[in-house]
Amino acid sequence: MDILQVLFWSTFGSVVSLIGGLLLIKSDAVRSKVVRYALPFGAGALLATAFVGLIPEAIEGHDVHQMVWYIIGGFLSFFVLERLLGWFHHHHHDDVAHDTENRTHTALVIVGDTLHNAIDGVAIGAAFLLNPAAGIATSIAVAAHELPQEIGDFGILLGKGMKPKKVILVNVLSALATVVTAVGTYIVGSAVQIPVAPLLALTAGFFIYIAASDIIPDIHEKPRREGNIQAIMLLLGVVMLSLVTILTSANHSHGDDLQNTHDHSHIETHDEHDQ
Q: What is the rounded distance in angstroms from the CA atom of residue 148 to the CA atom of residue 154?
């Protein structure tokens, strides 16, 4: 049952983002607006998941200072990967319909997006290794971030002259990386009992970097009205995903309490029967 949950939730974000891309594939203006305001919401979702969900779980019962180094390591690792690969910063997606001077090659956009999706999958798989509540909250945050990112990638590839059918195929194949790495991380982690806390801390570092580098600087550069709206969307993402994280964690804890009560009662009944 657990592996089915990982499969479902890792597919969830990819399906939502692909549907969004398909619906907006012919509308440059609408796509631009959706990306412009959905990206800061996704960034807020990642920040909430990192600070409210992943970091508290990572440090619980572990050396706080050690976990902090893992968080910094995740942050810097993503920075180095981005520099080495020349990843295209998604905060330029609001200009994709008219960005004819973009120097990023189509292949590099696809490779960067696929690797990004693969890292998202590792994050989801690691969260599910902790518990289903953390996995679901992480999956929702990833979906909130992936939706505008994938829509933006649709626009970039179309703007570079790629045919719509090929754009759809490329994005479907790229999205599969999330599912493969999520399921793979969960299976390997369950089999060899890898330590989950460092994975959660690294993921938190990834999420903080994405939000801090891709979105927040761009908000400050926008005209006052547009920047204020984006700031509100960022805060909304933080609030909504914080609530999702808290509620899913509470439900998971309540379920554990009920299971423990049931197990305890079963043991007592069994003991009385033996007597």
A: 10
